[in-house]
Amino acid sequence: MILPVAHTKIHPDQKLGESIQQLLLAKIAVYLMTFLIVTVAWAAHVRLFQVIEHIDDVLALLNLACMMIITFLPYTFSLMASFPGVPFGIFLFSVCAVVIGLIQAVIVAYGFYHPHLLNPQIQQSENQNFYKRHILKIILRGPVLCFLAAIFSFFFIPLSYVLLGLVIVFPHVTRLITWCKTKVLGQRGEEEEHHSLETFTFYLSEPLSKERVEAFSDGVYAIVATLLILDICEDNVPDPREVEEKFHGSLLEALSEYGPNYLAYFGSFVTIGLLWFVHHSLFLYVTKATRLMGLLNILSLAFIGGLPLAYQLTSEFAEKSHNEIEAIQVSCVITFFASIFQFAIWTTALLNEEETLHAFARYGGKEHAFMFAKLALYPCVSLGAFFLTCLLSEFSTAIFHLMQIVIPFAFLALRIFVRISLTAIKSVMSLSRRKVVLLEEEEACLSPNETLS
Known about the structure:
- By secondary structure, this protein is mostly helical.
- It contains 20 helices and no strands.
- The protein starts with a helix and ends with a helix.
């Protein structure tokens, strides 16, 4: 979905600041909204197949149809982003979301019609009809809002965007309302609700498993990294006739003109790779992902998806152009938010560390200081590079490329630095303890008269 944003054409004589206001800002906002809607659909799909544990040929074909519609969503987003004032783009996106929800509802109805496909706990329950109605009600909330958005797209487009935004926040709003009702009704109401929903409430209210969050995140990182090389293959292969006429058949000389593009590609790929490395290191010590951690992870992935835009901006403009500083600053902002949300995941996990973190990563654990330094590195460096380009605009390109070159080596040196720092702190603390022990021993050895004097 980032492709329409990343491939926004900005003329060399047009200022990037104006382009962001006119072209990129609306596209970025629509991209973030549609990305979050897709993650809501993914979460619903995961929970659906927690209820339905076995599939036959019919369910496989229905799921394939659902996947086909989901893969079509980036095209509908391209229409929304390119023609924000035309209702057909948002109408087509909303219709696709409705169809996805209807297919999921058919999967639920088919699964309950063939109970042997369901989760064993639901198979043994006497309230299958209640479960069926309850699951369908939850699944169809999003499609109903999208259906209304499709209708209002022809009358009042801003209201359609509001309705699509409700698809993202509606689960959190309903959970907040349920929490308020529980506080008002007391423990009794909570117990009655828990008894009525039995095992299904477990699958509905529990956050997604750590493994599913990691699998989805790895997929996003892999796709974003692949998009970078696709741009290289599409835009940076010289025309054979131009090589023959302009460069006298020298392919190497022709490729040298794309030097900034290759440098931007390697820098962007290293950034994506290191952010994935940090994400992998974080979830290596996470034992359970809470709902808030999952939301922060999705927000981080949304900005990870924006890194192809950062690549396009830093590769298109020549050195010392008037758009150079703005392009670099946009790249720093995208990197900062992608990494600061990773740091927020770590901070959230520390609030409930006994449940969410391995003992090594908790306060006082042997990996706690190293994880803190590793997660803080990218936010600090990207923020520092942003302000340095504001203060030292003449050296903005050098500062940006220096940041991209230094960070990989910083990760290698980080563990050594943390180990040395911890060793030095432990040595100082042990020396102070020894002094205290020696003073206590000296006082113990003194006679009572000497002590009084």
